Amino acid sequence: QVHLVESGGGLVQAGDSLRLSCTGSGPTFRPRSMGWFRQVPGKDREFVAHINVLEKTYYGDFVKGRFTISRDYAKNTVYLQMNNLKPEDTAVYYCAVSIGSRYNDPDAYDDWGQGTQVTVSS
Hints:
Elements: E1 3-7, E2 10-13, E3 18-25, E4 34-39, E5 46-51, E6 57-59, E7 67-72, E8 77-82, E9 91-98, E10 109-110, E11 116-121
Parallel strand pairs: 2-11
Antiparallel strand pairs: 1-3, 3-8, 4-5, 4-9, 5-6, 7-8, 9-10, 9-11
């Protein structure tokens, strides 16, 4: 069983930065490829970023260099540094464990965290 906990969300102004954290625990937790997704009410989950065990990274098209995913193996934590935030980045951000090869498909992930709300005001 794997337990993921996201943190770091909040209310910020456009142009500000936030760093989200996703910490894993549980008897079966081990380093795996991980991903961040986001979701707004009424819409599907949108791929944000992915990092594999070799720290190769992938990003959603909308990121355009503003976000950086990283990981700290010693802390069992994956981070999402978000810079130059825009109002359209407002969403609940989720992390999950990758169980498939399609890094941008939420169906290829499992063990989702509870999410952390990010709200960006204009």
